[in-house]
Amino acid sequence: MHAFDYSFELEDYITKEDFERLKEFSKDKETPFVVVLLKTVARKYDELRAAMPYAKIYYAIKANPHEEVLKLLIERGSCFDIASIYELDLMLELGAAPDRLSYGNTIKKARDIRYAYEKGVRLFASDSESDVRKLAANAPGSDVFFRILSDGAGADWPLSRKFGAHPEVVFDNILLAREVGLRPRGISFHVGSQQNDVTQWRVALKTCHKIFEEAADKGIKLDLINMGGGLPARYVHPVEETCVYMAEITDYLREFFGVFDEEFPDVIVEPGRYMAGDAGVLVSEVVMIAQKEHEGRPWLFLDIGKFGGLIETIEESIRYPVYTERKGEARDYVVAGPTCDSMDVLYETNPCRLPISLEEGDRVYLFTTGAYTQTYSAVFFNGFPPLKVYVMDDLPRETA
Amino acid sequence: MHAFDYSFELEDYITKEDFERLKEFSKDKETPFVVVLLKTVARKYDELRAAMPYAKIYYAIKANPHEEVLKLLIERGSCFDIASIYELDLMLELGAAPDRLSYGNTIKKARDIRYAYEKGVRLFASDSESDVRKLAANAPGSDVFFRILSDGAGADWPLSRKFGAHPEVVFDNILLAREVGLRPRGISFHVGSQQNDVTQWRVALKTCHKIFEEAADKGIKLDLINMGGGLPARYVHPVEETCVYMAEITDYLREFFGVFDEEFPDVIVEPGRYMAGDAGVLVSEVVMIAQKEHEGRPWLFLDIGKFGGLIETIEESIRYPVYTERKGEARDYVVAGPTCDSMDVLYETNPCRLPISLEEGDRVYLFTTGAYTQTYSAVFFNGFPPLKVYVMDDLPRETA
Known about the structure:
Two copies of one chain form a homodimer. By secondary structure, chain A is α/β, with parallel strands linked by helices. Helices cover 29% and strands 24% of the residues of chain A. Chain A has two domains: 10-35 and 278-397, Lyase, Ornithine Decarboxylase, Chain A, domain 1 (Beta Barrel), CATH 2.40.37; 38-276, TIM Barrel (Alpha-Beta Barrel), CATH 3.20.20.
């Protein structure tokens, strides 16, 4: 049990000016809530465009489907990765063209495929024979990319074997897809969310290249690589600059597919956490500080926990920076949420080092909480309502 | 990796007649949803009353706060354990008297204590000095019981050290409570949810008895024991009959507090899972059956998963019985949910043995899903709506 080194500066996450504005904006609002800084989303999008001009960005809506975020990205020309027909409906309502949508969930009911097809979606992910047959029957002639298994080594939020298939199975499915009248377009992979080891992309791209060659031998020209998500947001560990990270990935593409961007297959990236994570600040209140034993660490209870939106703290996987304006001597706190569920503990194995002067009623700020928080929050757990979200634009404006 | 022995009979969970009625009731409804059989809740309540006539039942609302469930229990004379002011509001709306409510969450904001006090709540749980002082200031003169730490050994959904304090700290808080004008009433403990080892109650009751004696030495007469929840529902393992389980606990009370029920302190129990768990049947559809590798187990994807309400499958802790009407030769399936989250896998280490004849589009039934499911479900994760609930009374009636 070591206390995590919590020596970060406010400015690692937000400018002093923005922080003051955020405090002003949120001072009369009842905690807990997330504030999304739209301009951060815009900046991240622009940085990624600049770093990978050859790639198409499909924003993974599930990371943060707030309307203002989606509208901003629609305006900027982004495409979108949808996980369900509900996300499809949301995008169509907001005016996104169906040819900018990819149905990226490999787990689909036949009627949901049919529904998406009828709405104009023509690009689907697949990883099983059964799904290929359902696509052929319900989305005839559509473009399909095939997901390969990846073990997610090096990622903070690792992958299981849930998605993707072994390359041999994928290859069989590519042949089947052609046979049943679909257009096999290429390969997708996902290196694991919050992936800190860029070389994982090389491993996956090498496999793609091999499948491309084998398909060519069978007369199938694959021309699409969907590199999924995995780009990190900045939690407690500093992450590489986007341009550095992307330059590495571009080098791997060159290694396997050609020296010039024009020689690359079509490249898709699906940033979710990368795009929305850094844009969120969760404002919470200290509910209680308790000493359970005469010796031992104090417990710090916040009004936000695992079921209020911080489910990614399971096994302490994702480490949100916790900021307080209190200063002075620090000590280690176990940090937990407000519900009666004993599992609702955020950081215990790796407690948080925070000032002794912290008091009940204080506000604390959890940075990098723009992705996979609000939509994960439970609908009525222990009676607590789902996490609220506010969007802060140039001028703060409030949304439902 | 061993396949779990899945040899249960339908009638272990539901009568054939009720099952036919449930199928009829649900045949035109879009999965996934939970059907709550009200008469099961009523039966469990009555059984517990009969087995512990000396105890007061405080239903733990958080397990299943469906209005029909709460109304039934209000009518039957139950008291209620609330976890938040939101649950308080719900109970008051439904007409429950505030003197039948216990604010059982030890993590409370000062203003929430004040709010509950103003609404008439006079019974509070506490486990810290800070909370005692807040209670004194915001709920003067109220009854307080003090929670002791328990390690939850033997429970399927174990406790952490989040709730309760060491007996020495508890004792200090009892003295403090008297000093600041509160009425220290007694001790509460929780042996862990889905507790299969009844002797855990003896360990806790022994500690209670010791604190009672020490308090008496200081002139404080404690007269309340809150035994919390922990009574098991029937998942895949058979559980003891309520009356057998309760007879054991009653024996432990006799051992420490007197031969006759009249000599017992006031006894409170807070069943949640016990009361609502068995009453729920979750109806789901097979979305996809996929082979990831040429060798290896097939994956069975349902339209319900961890984020749709089955979060208690984390670490495969709670094992829901999965029932299909298909028969014949069986094989092991890895079972997973429908979202794009790789963590959304239900049973992989211990896969499910189900018929080979299972097909996509089939309905499967997950029994014992009446507790800690619907309210845990995420508000919009991957776009999926929260889990729907229907209540089946003598005549099926639909609710929002």
